[in-house]
Fold:
Amino acid sequence: MKILHTVEQYDPSVGGMQEVVKQLSRRLVSLGHDVTVATSFYADRKSNLLDGVRIESFRIGENLVRGYRGEVAEIKRYQDFLVNSDFDVIVNFAAQQWASDLAFPVLDKIKAKKVFVPTGFSGFFLEEYREYYYKMQEWMKLYDMNVFLSNDYWDINFARKNKVSKIMIIPNGAGEDEFLKSELGIRNSLGVKADDFFIVHIGSHTGVKGHKEAVEIFSQAAIKNATFLIIGNFFPKEKARPTSFINCLKGIVKKIIWWLIGGQDKHCPEYCHKIEKKFNSLPDHQAHNKRLIVKSLPRAEAVSALQEADLFLFPSNIECSPIVLFEAMAAHTAFLATDVGNSKEIVAWSGGGEILPTTIDKNGFSYAKIKEGAELLKILFDNRQRLNKLADNGYQAWKDRFTWEKIAKNYEGLYYKLIKED
Structure:
């Protein structure tokens, strides 16, 4: 098959959606298929061929609601690429980003089988996206299949409510090729003693991964001889490229609104480094041998840290279906997560972790209850038998159902089925 996956960002950019498309694409290549990824241009991308996957780059950014960034000719080039190519299957990953939003107007002109993987509808409750989601019900009906990561989340419930008939569920996962490798000894390199309780959080410094809440939970938990490692990527600030004065003003207003509702916090890296120094200097933390480490680590070292951890702590504010929970399961590590995305469903599927007491605001953002979260952390710290049982459950569930190897074959089966329908 000739397959096209479209996604806003791709390698070397790092993030959940990038990882999903990368894992699926490279595995479909290994199964004998011709796979191309259409994505944003990235100055640091060294090659347009990665693990057998061809990368077609476009100098486009943002989305339909915020206004596209890029020349009109480049936008037309992308839409012509979708319409005039000879792919058997075209898959748009994630709503609210240009690679899908620019596909919607030309769906009826695309000859290939069309698949949409919405990945959650993160702006579903925002006023500025009201018209966007009014149109979404019709766009989804133009696809040959809509693939959801969860059986009970905003996107799939929206589809059912609006009588979108072509629906199936394929969850996220984690790869055997990464997680069946031996550990690298990250504990030792970070100075974490063998008998210390080692907690890990993985999430980029976007301001919505729950770094602040995680630190507060760790600080308030009545535990000792413990190290908490936050692994996060740092993003350089992009240069603004407004196309007009009006668009510039719109961008400023939207950023202010996003900040007011608890969205992306540009100061997250500064906060995390500042709190790291402050945390480690407090007498109470020193007396109880509690240490905080904030680092950006290469992928292999981050995987190793997750494998060597006693617990994965993930009080994120907004998610669809957090890949890191599947990765914790693959690492044989129990997790504590907020009620965010389909984390409750992942717990039900796997028994690999527990849900932190959570409040959810009117915009759909989840916030861990600090005191109750600290108490739950203390319970698991004291009950290693319970902690180990969670880890065992999650690992077995991952091996049985949630490896990327199995999930890629599910996508392959779907693509074959759609093609054979003709």
In short: The mean pLDDT is 91. Residues 2-173+403-420 form a domain with the Rossmann fold fold (CATH 3.40.50.2000). The chain has two domains: 2-173+403-420, 176-401. Residues 146 and 173 are 18 Å apart (CA to CA).
